[in-house]
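Run log // design_07
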């Protein structure tokens, strides 16, 4: 049986892309820039400036 590889997640992601009830949000650690104050790539978003968050309420 073939398996589908898991998408790469960053530490700041709460869900995988495409998960119902999740959406893309601006990374709080780097304010969406993808870089930290020292110029290094943000480890929370992997340099994308975006993280996946659970949305909605329940």
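design_07 sequence
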């Amino acid at each position: 049986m073939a398996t589908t590889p898991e998408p790469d997640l960053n530490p700041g992601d709460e869900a995988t892309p495409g998960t119902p009830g999740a959406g893309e949000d601006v990374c709080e650690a780097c304010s969406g820039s993808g870089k930290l104050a020292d110029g290094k790539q943000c480890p929370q978003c992997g340099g994308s400036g975006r993280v996946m968050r659970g949305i909605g309420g329940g």
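Residues 19-58 form one domain.
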